[in-house]
Fold each of these.
Amino acid sequence: MIKSPIVKLVIQVRLLPTPEQAAALTDTLHQVNIAASQVAAVAFEEFGLSCRELPLRTLCYGDLKAGGLGAQAAQHVIKRVVDAYTTLRGNIRNGHLGGPASRRRRKAESKPVVFRLDAAHTFDDRCLSWQLDAGTVSLWTVAGRCKNLRFACSPDQAKMLAAHRKGESDLLHRDGKWLLIATCDVSEPQVCEPADWVGVDRGIVNLATTSDGDNHQGRRLSRYRRWQARKRVELQATRTRSAARLLRKQARREARHARHINHKIAKQVVAVAARTGRGIALEELSGIRARATVPRDQRARLSSWPFHQLGAFIAYKARRHGVPYIEVDPAYTSQRCPRCGHTARNNRPSRDHFECRRCGLAGPADVVAGVNVRDRARSAWVFVNMPQPAPT
């Protein structure tokens, strides 16, 4: 029997602990993260960056148990350390920390991983149970089992948790709030054969423009970022600890704002495609920041352009609704005439306007780009689904 593909969704609920429960949760996070830093130091001394779970468990499990951690908590601490070094090796291998002579890379390779005191910790079903009808959870702490810990979530989130929650959950303390982040495995519906395609052109001024002419502007996001940048300059000039805390809080707020806008755009695009029986086509923009050159005063704007996040949101929402999704070559989509095929830079005399020098077709440049993305998706889908010749 062939299993249907799975979409992993994250549900975040807010915990509402009493003062006694909050103290127990704080002590638990602090102790498990102190223990994780100690295990990371042992792993670095014994194995360098190439630690493995079984040898590390042999070295550290007994000490963690003797230090007051439960069996499952000790296992999760060891696994978190191994995962942290695996991530570090991957970042080094992929060049995310620079070359061998990079100061950032040499610093990362020269010392063990250290965990923040309030870093998230993992709980599985042996040390965390949900009572969804009562709106409470029960979880292990260093002070004993913490029962009847209330949580708050929306009715849709509660329904999702009841039907699809599976695997581990993470306890997190952020900005004075206690959060529990659960993973839900949702089966993907079968992808339908598209009647046509919705081409989506992503940009900085207009975050997304579809081939139907729907335009999702980014002016409010740009204005919000400029306002946050002015506040950031003021806080950086203060150079105090409280200013540093406010800067971190502000960065998270700005990221949440951009994420919310991208969610809204992705939801609207997928809803239109699902309602009309069409697929969604986007430009493949990997590496565009390295290829694009902009004036100095626009570099911050380019670096904060959330195109990848928008594409990821559209992709997973399309999978959830059974909408076909494809990425196509972005070359010259804003300079090519979709009617006659003439491609030239002067077809786009300004950022907002397109006018073909051969046939005279004119219109908004981003809509024309979306139409070209749609046309390329038609050809690409036919090629992908073309039956392959039998081997001789």
Note: The mean pLDDT is 87.
Amino acid sequence: MDDAFPRSTADCVGARACEWRAVSTAMFALAFLMSLMGGVPGPAQAQTTGGDGSIYSRFGVGELREYSSPQAQAMGGGGLALRSLNYTGFANPALWSDQELTRLAAAARYRRINAQSGTGQASRLDNGALQAVQFSFPLYTEKLGIGVGLRPYSRLEYRVQQAPRPVPGDTASYQLRFEGEGGLQEISGGLGYRFGDVLALGARAGVVFGILESRRATRFSTPRFAPTTLATRTRVAGFTSTAGALLSLASVFRDEDALSVGATLTLPATLTGERVRTSGRGLDPDTLRIDGGGAAREDEGSLRVPLEAALGLSYKPSDRWTFVADGRFEAWADAENNFETALPGFEGLRDRTRASIGAEFLPAGTNRNDTFFKRTAYRLGGYYEQTYVGPQALPDGASEGVDALAATGGLSLPTPLYGTRIDVGFEVGARGTTSGALVRDLFYGVSLGVNLGERWFQRRKLR
């Protein structure tokens, strides 16, 4: 485990110093979170409005998001078996058993997407978004820990406009525009417990909730035909649960090395809610106004989110190097939509798979007195994802689904505050293809995370 902490003595002398350090850290954390929630840059005029999604987010429940820790994100985005005293990995609840410090972590991301079609049409999106807010603490040091977190589960944000088409039997033309926004969030919490030096188990439960909105607008080239809009607003919520396990082995291939194997299983979840469908004249119909050519209709239903299974490996040949590899499977081909009318793009989904690898180099190892650059961690990774958007969900002529390939990297910077690090991450990749009337997304991103650690709940000792 990187940058190990001392295990016997406190890091501040006297109760007064400890109290002031806790207060200053809490104030810094609060200011950081407020800056994330209120100061994230807005979107540029581009393919979408109000978010950082892709054209392919119109399928299913949107573009799926994952987040474990800044360390894991820079190493390909896995982290199921990535043990660390500096981070609380949320990919596997069994990792919470390793905690020594009470931790508050938050991260934000800035992303650019350049979308291009086979006909040469292009659009650009610039946007920032909150990645996660996490809080965790040990009940018994390196034995029993608790974690609570908030993260985006999916993001729905797109704008697609078709080329004008002639109105049958008339000289006028019409144009269709499809828009969507919203997404799902997840609040979860649980605990991890270690049974000896080899086995740790964990479990977490959470609530997935959010609003998915889509609109289809029809415009005409002549005022003889009034523009019309069909809008759908779906509000859902439901409970989810995940179980995790972690095996930790020492001196496997050489002295003082460490091998960890982590696995998680997320059970299928049913998200229930209501849907409001609105049709009417104009580009912005009011669901509360039924007269004047508009009509609103409500129905109740549910979505069934499928089973998820994941497996990860982590190997530390020394205290300077860490290597990880992770794989994930989600049975989205079995996802169900029990609303009267299906979600736009929900039909034709396929199973989602994801594989990632990564490495971290920490020149100083466990030496906390080394130079700044030697105490900086350097990370590199990558991932391949078969998204759940299959060829059956795409326009006619598509012979393959949507896949993504990306490289990741980052730096972890030490700070004068004990247990606190600042993380910078990078990501560059491509999703989709320009063949078969499809669109290819080239995306670039940078993220910033602050990970605060303090010793809480310590008994005062007489000196």
Note: Confidence is low (pLDDT under 50) at residues 1-52, 285-293.
Amino acid sequence: MPTEVMTRVHTRDSAARSGIIVSAAPSIEAWNRFVAAQGASGYHAWEWRGVFERAFGHDTIYLAALRDGQIEGVLPLVLIDSWLFGRGLFSLPFLNYGGVVAEGEAAARALLAEASRLAKDRGCRSLELRHTTQQFAELPGRQHKVAMLLPLADESTQMWNALDRKVRNQIRKAQKSELSAECGGIELLDDFYGVFARNMRDLGTPVYGRRLFAEVLTTFPNRARIHVVRRAGAAIAAGITYRTRSTLEVPWASSLREHNSLCPNHLLYWSIIEHAIGERCTTLDFGRSTPDEGTFKFKEQWGATPRPYHWEYYLPSGRPLPNTSPSNPKFNLAIAGWKKLPLGLATWLGPSIVRCIP
């Protein structure tokens, strides 16, 4: 790393005399211009800082690497003081993407150095960076999850003809069962959340609070949409999509298992694909999956292909890599018990627990 690189935190008014300075108070406008120019993930937008703070109450630290006052790299961080897993810094928790975005190695290294110092000074067990490619070869990492990406055709008819015949038949079955699909905004939040909360309880997973989704929809009204599948007017499947440039991502989706025989999930995703094509998107990001598990195979049948995530870690105390995944065997008893909770109780307890599970 060049000797002129400094990792002291400066305020916005500090003048950069030479080299790279890491600032914890960058210009919001400059931050958003930089992440847009760099093609960063949609979650690097500054507005997500407020979502984390308002929906979860977590402290955030947004670092920018500056040279002569110009941003050359950014790193959004969320501090989680978890009674389950201890204290940690995450970029970014609860989401699929985050980490360092930088124009060059000097800026990236300066940001890593400052984030590592913060993790150590604040007694964190780990610093977790959710990258899409390996950025720091010396850091331990995990590639236990993948994104499932589907290239989209220019027209719905072309996309329909490209689908596997079995998938088309399942979409037709949903349509013949008189299921209907619609797309909207925050006015559909109750429909989405009713399905989502129940499905999370049935999976044995604490549910996010309704406020998270309300914050996302109000903060990003032109990028976040709700998709709902109904049977006789009642919501039985629903998802939230989030657009970044020409990619439409499905970070959250659920369906009610008692209706699985009617294939509501297939109609849900087909309606999302039609919406994406109508918005001139070129890629559908089905979201995070574990290779060879059920959701992976569901997404694979649509023609989606895996792209590994590269989650990289700084471990101040030489601890083993953290494992907060529900697949961790030590959670088996808790998952089994959660499935038996009354829905109302699970929905009430869930947000206070899941805010501690990044």
Note: The first strand starts at residue 9 and ends at 10.
